[in-house]
Amino acid sequence: MSKNSNSDYVTSIKESASIICSEIGPEIVDSVFKRYGAHDVDDLDPADLPDVFPEDQYREYDRWRTALRKRMQYRGECFCPRSKW
Question: In this predicted model, what pLDDT tens digit does every residue of 27-62 receive, in sequence order?
Fold first, then answer.
């Protein structure tokens, strides 16, 4: 496994935070940052960067999001074209 640099972690955290904000809401991201005593990515302690939005947590969220989307499509609640997904 390769060692990630702090800039890689910061980029990943920013991307994850953006996705979670748009899909669920900013209060989730705020609560995660608050857990680490920060207001945003720049306030995080470099030692905490790998733990803020770990990849397995994102995968779990993505599974939930995919299941929700499929359930909405099945019920006819999602009106986006299937080719988009």
Answer: 888 888 888 888 888 888 878 877 776 766 667 767
Backbone torsion region of residue 40, taken as left when φ is above 0, otherwise alpha when ψ lies between -120 and 50, otherwise beta: beta
Burial class (CB in 10 A: 0-12, 13-18, 19+), 69: middle
Alpha-carbon torsion 41, 33, 46, 1, what sign?
negative
Q: Which 8-state DSSP code applies to residue 47?
A: G
Instruction: Judge whether 73 and 82 are in contact, CB under 8 Å.
Output: yes
pLDDT digits (tens, 9 = 90+) for 1-23: 345 567 777 887 888 788 777 77
CA distances from 8 to 20, 23, 78 (A): 18, 23, 34
Phi-psi region of 53 (alpha: psi -120 to 50; beta: other; left: phi over 0): beta
